[in-house]
Amino acid sequence: MKKMTAVFKVNGDAYEVMVDTHALLVEVLRDELGYGFKGVHESCGSGDCGACTVLVDGEPVLSCVALAVSARDKEITTIEGLAKGNQLDPLQKSFVEHGALQCGYCTPGMILSAKGLLQENPSPSEGEIREALAGNLCRCTGYNKIIQAVLAAAKGGE
Amino acid sequence: MQMDMRVVGKRLPLKESYEKVTGKAEYCTTVALPGMLVGKILRSPHAHARILNLDISKAESMPGVKAVLSARDVQKRIYTLNVMTYQLPDGEPQDMIMFDDVVRYVGDPVAAVAAINEEIARKALEAIEVQYEVLPAIYNIEDAVREGAPAVHEPVPGNVLIPATPVFCYGEVEKGFAESDVVVEGTYQTSKQIQAGLENACSVADFRSGRLTVWSQTQLPHMARRMIAHLFDLPETRVRIIQPYAGCGFGAGTDLCNEHYAAGLAIKAGAPVKVKYYRNEDFSNRITREHIVRVDMKVGLQKDGTPKALQAKYVGDAGAYACKIGSGCGVALASNITEYEFENMHQEIEAIYTNHLSCGAMRGFGGMQSSFVRETLIDEACEKIGMDPIEFRKKHHRGVGGLGWFPMTEITSCGLDECLEIGAKKIGWKDKWRKGQKDGPLRRGVGVAAMGWLSGAQPMLLEHTNATLKFNNDGGCSLIVSPGNLGQGIIGSLSQIAAEALGIDYDDVHVVLGDTDVTGFDIGTHASRGCYCIGRAVMKACGMAREKFMQRAATKLEAPAYALEMRDKKIYLKDDPSRSVDYREIAHDLIYNYERNCEQLVIHATLEPTEFAPPWQAGFAEVEVDSETGVVTLLNWITVHDIGRAINPTVVEGQLEGGTAQGVGFALFEDPIISQENGAMLSDGFDKYKIATALDIPRHEAILVELGDPSGPYGAKSVGEAGLFLQAPAISNAIYDAVGMRLREVPMTPERVLAAIKNQKR
Known about the structure:
Chain A is an alpha+beta fold. Helix content of chain A is 32%, strand content 17%. Chain A is built from five helices and five strands.
């Protein structure tokens, strides 16, 4: 098994580690770096559900089907990196205020996909939000409140 | 009803939302313990086989393997995954043995390993040598009851687990049908929906100092503890269940899943073990929605709509083990009793063993099948007598004092008329129903369905519940309760109830749950019981606490306790509010009293509810059917729900809206397919088993009717399961309105719709 040294820049901090070249990004984020970014939730393991979504250079990436080495030296954002201390990101705040989560397992991926969308398109229509979140499955909410939360966060001038 | 409420009825954020939006929330899949091993299960590749030999020696000797668990490590104890068995004095049928010498479905566990990492654990599974004698297997109920069919369980020849048994019958149906002007009947196929929570099945176990701790996704922690204790011959006191947040549920947590494999491995390895399923393993081995697959129903009405008779036979495909066969049957039939004033009713249930995955419970337990069948047949009967189905429902639904589901119960409240009226207006019923365009390939239609559900399964099942309040010197308190921890909003809702009842703030109440070492006994979360049953226990405890506070204040105010009121953190004389004492001062004095009069207030209330408080609901669908492709597009969905009183309207809407997505899935595209060639679950991933995405459902709406229920906490009834009953029947009725044909099978896929349209043309 081939190993290599790689630097992962996660939420602004650089971690230099030895990784298997075939290791998945989700495995490295959760199990190899620091205390582990446990907010990266893995579910399907095949890119079908979006629970493991993280941002790599601002783009939503499914970390369960991405090789870790493909993200080395790039800016990775996990859900843990969104709030500034106890100050929630406007999207996180909006999810809380709109009741846009229940079990919460899809929430980190959902918020990061929405973050990716708003960075590219600061005032999306409802249809554009649905399109952007279609790869993030939620079994609890029926999406209504998630879409409301993203719309409200966008209007908040993000 | 008390209307000037400060906390109840407010749209407050979930107590757990901060942890969940920041990635800090702990789930079973994120639990990490020092020295924790990876547990994996070796599964049968055959649907039916006898294990002739199991050689674990190679696996055991592999470096990094810490335990291999098989039949020789566990006692041959009969058990069931269905921990709800303890809610009945005689229990439900139990027919499982851990690592039995016969495997009965593709995936039946044969052995399990614990290793230092996943790679070694997987290699160890491959190193286990199993010699099977493959036995003939059966994959559907028709084959199962044929003469000479192989027996799934040897003591049950013919595979009839429950022979056709009448349940909850009354009157004389034959007489009822004779007196009917219109009789409609049909045979329906329903689907064993998969719960499909996003978090894969996972548990962690640790055995140390003679005590077993299990981190579980269970919804019924105390009964799960009892079953695990039974399996490993441990006193219950030496078993502890911890429930981190669960990223799944919807009924899946009313059965054990992999807790006992993690426990067995942890005991043998002497180290903590996590067993986490892969997604395909989850879909193929976590027991699905209840067993019912076929329903024959017949309904008789008089010309004025008077419901004379309902007759039904439900047939269940149990799969390999009985699991929830008893309760599933009971609920399905009981749920037909309350909706309409049928004068005569006869219902039977039958259940058959087959060689595939067994059935547990999913949200809408038994009521999904019943509401789909009953509500479409009612639509058909209304058509025949020329009555608007909304008018029929308003005229003939049961009301207050009418028959509850269970013998000796009466309906406590009913807001169905309001639900029907609001929804009809909102969907534009008068302008749309039977008025859709009848040419061109795209046809539109509207449909309605209604139901009454339950708030806990009392008094049929044990619904013993407990709430404890422990007060701090600032007047805040811990509220110790034991529901499922699924994100359904129960933590916040119970806090709102307690805060309202004690006259304190939402943030003054901290809920402690998820640890059987700490919490009092509770049945847990099933049957839409949490807010209603546990909420009532909270009300009771708060009432007792108020008395304590007022007694203490009475001395200070030199007035009798009965003359006092406690509100907004003040205790004062009802007749003279200016004579008051700060509630926090009393709380402080209870803890820091320097005159030898300290008292740690720990107030505990036990509740065993008996009332039948049904939430009612009307659901309205507007669809567009492409008669050339069979594609059904849902254009609009409206749920109007009689909640009694919404403790937190955002939470209630969230339950209903989430239910809608699952109900639309059940109606249109969720399709669990079991191979008829080898019995394997084919729909074993989100790529094959489609749940609704943000693009699959339209904008939908949940509207609340709040008339109050006399028995519920602040008038609240239930909402947990209620959101997903009516999509299938209302969409089916809307399809009829659009294209004039009736579908009797879910999911109503384009293939099925197109076939029905072609059939109709012929």
